[in-house]
Structures
1.
Amino acid sequence: MEFSVVEPTVTENITENITETRTGTRTAPGGDPGIPPAARPGRPDPKPDPERAAAIRRRDRAHVFHAWAAQKHIDPLPVAGGAGSYFWDYEGNSYLDFSSQFVNLNIGHAHPRVVAAVRDQAERLCTIAPHFTTEPRAEAARLIAGLAPGDLNRVFFTNGGTEANEHAVRMARTATGRPKILSAYRSYHGATATALNLTGDPRRWSADSGSAGVTHFFGPYPYRSAFHADSPEQECERALAHLDLTIRMEGPATIAAVLLETVIGTGGVLVPPDGYLAGVRRICDEYGILMITDEVMVGFGRTGEWFAVGHWDVVPDLLTFAKGVNSGYVPLGGVVVSDRVAAVFDHRPYPGGLTYSGHPLGCAAAVATIGAMRDEGMVEHAAWLGEQVLGPGLRDIAARHPAVGEVRGLGVFWALELVKDRGTREMLVPYAASPAESTPVTEVMAACRKAGLWPFANYNRIHVVPPCNLSAAEAAEGLAILDGALTAADAYTTEGAS
């Protein structure tokens, strides 16, 4: 596969004129912290190879069983490669990746430092049983614990986010001796049995056993308040009162943990009002309940902090991660465990494990990813990009399109909520929509892809979730494409139909 792209170069002065911050990360003084040329290769110009694409499609349709899909109703795009903020197909088309694939490609495609680290580790030691220890696992755990807040000092490695949540719940139940877990509606926590029952969206419905020891509650969502709130402050107060009442009705002594996404992701990029997470922490402490924050999607720079709890200075008892820890280059996830929970297992075996826990290749990728993010100021850049480019740009777009009801987000984690009518806030696409009902958003996505942009969509929302090292110029390019594509949604509004 041939393509034209700027070759990565070694940047010797990457750490010049940088200062240490309170979290130990580094940033350039003033404005955009800057991302080195190695992380910004520019839009590629791939050479078409349609015969290869056709062969891949035939094999895929004959032998691959795809997740979350009716097998006869999908036509997966054969992807040929990726570099920086772009990936490309075999037809000569390139796409600016505003989805970060599954919101996990925080450092972009094919970052040379991480590719080299995986290659070097593979040449030394590809795999080893988890009862041994290795340099990459020990170093990855040290780095992750150093980024986590408070006394979260121990790391249990998994293969991804679903297993991380499964094991966090197992730890909480074992440590407390209590059976129940509370989790929020509109959440997603994974696709295995316990994780799917924890999930608070329609993907749970077909697999919900009704006996998994999980109770759901409503979290804050000011734009569509379940509490008839008039302000974010009132929404916070009423959501906390609802959680407290739910706990009292369920029986505090039966509840092991409250599990929640720090910022709800697939369910809408719902940023909690100030004071909410601190309130959850206070309620948990009052009843002797553990607090688990799911940072699988928002961890490692996505919101402009290493972990999203950093925005509100809240310390959970258990914190789960995956995705951005190594940008998905090799499957890896885990649970960061507080000292008090870890102490339960000092003289009592933890009842769980995984063949690939702490896999050398995954951990080597994590060490390199964290190093690259620190040295290149990616977390600071993500915060700057959200405050100065994506946030203002999306709000400008919203002002021009009657289909956009609300813009919300932070860092490189944003959503446009699409509506039929701004006054009534009727959803442009209903909750749990059928394919036919999803037509307005499907048309927006098609227009984006035709123009070379690949965003993320769920029900009535378009999510803008690019890599943390997206450049300001790339952001402007993507926003311009999205601006044009949203005219398709406007046609379905009351204003567009009149």
Note: The chain has two domains: 30-105+377-497, 114-375.
2.
Amino acid sequence: VWGGSSCKNHCHGPHRPHGLNCPGAEGEKDLPVLPGAYPIVEDPSTCDIVKATQYGIVERCKELVEAGYDVRQPDKENVTLLHWAAINNRQELVKYYISKGAIVDQLGGDLNSTPLHWAIRQGHLPMVVLLLKCGADPSLIDGEGFSSIHLAVLFQHMPIVAYLISKGQNIDTTDFNGQTPLMLSAQKAIAPEPTRFLLKFNPSLNAVDNVQKNTALHWAITSGNTSAVDLLLEAGASLDIKNVKGETPLDVAYQSLNRFMVYMVKEEERMRSRRNNRLLKIVEKYEVISRVITNGNKLNSFLRRGSFKVSEMGCPKIKFFKSMKPLRSMHCLACESCVARCDQHSLWIGQCIGVGNHRYYLLFLSFLMMTGVWLLHGTLLYWSNHCATSYGQDGAWTYFTQIIHCSPWVFYIFTVACFHTVWASLWLVVQLYQIAFLGLTSHERMNLLIQRKSSKHPVSLRRTPYNLGCFQNLADFFQCSCFGMFKPNVVDWTKQYNLFHTAKEKNVHSV
């Protein structure tokens, strides 16, 4: 449905709307196209108007409209031309269609969404700005009950969230189930940035949804989102509100069987009870001044980053965004840096694994595994030559006690070697599986697994835009042509911002 042979290789491939696959640490992104030579359109004049809109062939679209095509007419999938132009960020076509009578808030598609909803799902901020200028209503909800700001939070497009708020959207707007953006962020977004960003706008911490009567803190604990729990507790979320089952956040934490979560809530509860002490209240008065100064410095730092510009009337308005997060990147709180094509933050080497050192990390795991095997072989040789015991003659328990008595130090080396050999071997196998058969990083795979649990639609780890086949995935990762059998795609993930479509499949899941 994306176009025939004459159109499907145009330089900007079209997007299709996705079902709601709620993101985790990195969220829903557009489907990327790996850089390369621009495909050639054999004969644009053969494209129908839907395909021409998807691929941005402006002259062909104008030709068909002038010939009498009704821009308000939906296609067989109940999708209008304005939807296709919005999801593919065709700003010139959006202006043209609206000038020809297109309805800016027309509902369409499987999710009964507006063109604004489609643009938000793909993270097209310029298109969102244009549609709002043309009169799009951001308060409208789609077929799943989400308004524009909820979709922006779900897919973790924070610039769009900030822009919608600057245009008057209420930070505490509720969806069909009564959930606020903060609740959705606490429930769906594992990364701390969305929740931290929303808290800057002073949302209601104690609002409850219509169904479960859960607060944002309830939802964060239920979903195991430790970063959101920490942020909400620090912001002062109530620990006393009970949901429809009569459960407080601490009760929900006990049910989750997450000891760390229970510890966080109980520690916060203990700290708050201590603050009720009269003496501590006196001391707290003097702490307020330092906190105001600290928060003021943080706010000034935030403003200096270019996200906001304070107007002469004192009202913060969106000006511009200096830094854009590259595709597949993630900000690491431990390293305090943005890591391109981030895989994980490794505790064993004390830094993040990304595009610059991922291959060396696999080499590290390989050498660690081989060193462990060599040590295990050496300890077994030592025991066979220096310990007067035999597993076949003495049995397991006698053999075990004798080798410990023979040389405790060698047994300690054997234990350590076993531990490192096992985890390095297993993790190396997992890494190679993700690279070769999924084309994903560990962070992206974790996000998809989280989506699979919470999404109403099936989520496949294999059907992603990054999975180009086993051998092509390996060639791209190791940048190896295998004597000319493969042509690796060269992608600078530190500068890859444009989100296009590469996968041949129709139904793919963004990561």
Note: The first helix runs from residue 49 to 54.
3.
Amino acid sequence: MVNHGVVLKRPTGTIRAWLISPKPAANATGRWPDATFPLLAFLPLPKKRIRKYAGPVLAIALFALAVRLLIREAHQITWDEFVRGLTGVPASQIVIAAFLIALNYGLLIAYDILALRYVARSLPLRRIALVSIAGFSLGNNLGTLLAAAPIRFRFYSQWGLPPGQIVALISVVGLTFWSGWWFLGGMVLIWVPIQLPPDVTLPFATQTLGVVLISLAILYSLVCFLWRKPWPIGELHLRPPRPGLMFVQASVAAVDLLISATALYLVLPGDSVVPFAQVLAAYLVAIGVAMMTQVPGGLGVLEVILLTLLKGTVGDTVLASVLIFRVLYYWLPLLAGMIALVGYEIFSGAVAAREATGIVIDPQRAADPAAMVGSAHSVDSGHGADSGGSGDQEILLPEFQDDNRPTGS
């Protein structure tokens, strides 16, 4: 009994499977017949199934745990304290917080602009704004896998981007957030350590977490400066962003986090005395953990962490402030994003119907076959221009490399 390494050829890669079996006889071409390996088809199934279900199961378990902890903390807050927290926030501060959140969602468009820059594609700003705002507003509430990624796939594929570039684009959008979180979170947690409640114990101090985050940020910077070879990630080969793009990524994400933390600070009760740096540090920890758990919208996770880290300084009224922030930052943009999507679909359908009707029933064009041909060509040309025009042509990508792209012309 000996081991034989077998490489299974697939359209996009290979799988090496090791079997313990008698050595089969090679045919005239020197290859082993496929019939001698009937178990190969079953080898990838366990890992695929584990990867497929492990994430959702873990997210559900963490969500249930967060809800349980949140309910336990909420039982310690009286109804009068909760109402005082809701009514204790000045209306002017809520309006300013809502304005900052609207400004923040406008800044989120830069995430997609940078990702398109990475894959060397260009689209009109109005389209980038649509897919970015819709993707973030729905993704922040429903999760990346359920909303943000499908929305980007749907629109970017419609506008001429191939699947490989869309996957790379989505990866860069996520990397932009994490790069800013590493830089800003590392600096804040090192200089502003969080005072944990007595009943909360961690195996390491928050300053240690800050050192870890800033180390990741430095490592990411070094990779972008020194490493130019593509890394195999799934079926793609992606190069690290260039240093200039990396610095812009971290800056955009850091400003994004600062604005959202400021909005949270503004909806705290007016009589609370807490430094902004402490609210910022608590928010960075909460949003980072919420993103890592993959619970849609960080629902429950964000609330229980902020409540735990801020109730010692703000008081029990912080729960009401966190709920106000949830409404302003998550639920109202969700409504706006859904309205934008519905409006775009209605407008696109009306335009398509108008163009189709104009081609079919125009009597003057119907009487002139040459005019009909010209009309069809003009519609096709308009559709191509609508899909991105010259910016959507296949060009050499400085950052991105797709296995399916031909290596030579």
Note: Residues 318-361 form the longest helix (44 residues).
4.
Amino acid sequence: MARIRGSRRARRTTALSGTVEAAAIVAAITAEGASGTGALRFEGLRVIGSLDLGQRRVETRIALVDCVFEEPVDLVGLAAPALDLSGSSLPALRADHLSVDGEVRLAGARLGGGTALSRPMTDPSASGTGMRAPRRMTEGTATGALQLADARIGGNLVLDGLTVADSGAWSLLAPRLTVGGSLHARELTASGSLYLRDARVTYAVNLHAADVGGIDATGLVCSGGFYADWGFRSSGQVLLRAAEVGGVVTFHDAVLAEPAGALLLSRLRVPRLRLDLREPPAGQVVLQDAAVDVLVDSEATWPAPGRLTLEGFAYQRLETERPVEVGSRVAWLTRDPRAGAGAFEQLARSYESRGDERAARTVRHARERHLSRHDRLSGRLWGYVQDVLFGYGYAPRRALVWLLSLVAAGSLWFAHHPPRPVGADGRRAWDPVLYSLDLLVPFGGLGYRGSWDPAGASKAVALVLVVAGWTLATAVVAGARRVLGRG
């Protein structure tokens, strides 16, 4: 018998080998645990019968490495310094309320007696006849191949290379799990979903290259980071609703695959969020009411139109590996069919924060166009007029162009078709430019409008200039009020 890595206590040997009764292991652990000396390591055993160490407290570090258990292992309520089940094969591990001062290791272990057929977690309201796992469960009735409800682990929880092949919906059932170190689950393979609601992890959750049916980590609190990246794959929903992560949440190079791969991140709080996936997600991405400092994404892997929810999403800065044009970023917003003024204003402020005022104006202009499409017919027509004349107030030079164009057109007409003067004093010299300008400007006057009387076609041209002037002035005032009001 060898001592467990990191232990400086004396080693104790055992004669157990080959096929053994579970009761013999329990007796050895109990005897060693009572003395509080050394660490027990069992390796390569085939265990028959039910190994039950529930509701016990032992002072011995327990290692059952590369063992094969014919029946589920019961560690409910066990208190121990450390636990190592690396490389072992178990039908199930029941370890609710487990209390371990150091590490719990299941690296390379195998749980479950079924096949690795994926059972993706989907929305309970989703239609279809395929295999579906419920997103909500009733504690006390639901079971999982690995159960760690209310468990407390002082060190790391190491699930690297763990394989869970079970017919149940939940591969890991660990609500309110507390981990004093990190949760390592690199290259974990699970046919079902991971249930980590209200879990507390002091450092990081590492799911590099893991393959799961879904994750429910609603209410997770993690001081370090949540790393579902570099080949991470989920065929079901990943929920981080109302989670609080101190470092980064990253899905870089992750795959949210068919049939139900989706991200539900509403009310997430994290400084940095990476959504630069390997490919576009199969399902939706919900960022409603989430708050981040930096969002990193990729235009090539944005969700399909209608599968993005951004309302209430707050961010300070957007980052991409390749530059994204402001027009493309506006199209990103409109992939949310319910995107309102707030989503556009959030994007405009992010451009302003980095000094790009032109892009901010472009976004606000696009906002007015987007909102106008959902207005009544009269509102849509009036919005179209404002857009054409001066871009809802965000393209003021367009109004000047219209004014100069109308003045030029009127001047050209009246230069060849001068109206007759009113009265016979002849004190005011004829000027087609000033006359056209006086017709266009609805307020004040230059004195030319009343001094000349157009007739025939010239009267129609004069009427067009007057109406155009009033329309242009009204649109400019309305646009200015809108800009100032929303600013």
Note: Residues 1-11, 128-134 have pLDDT under 50 and may be disordered.
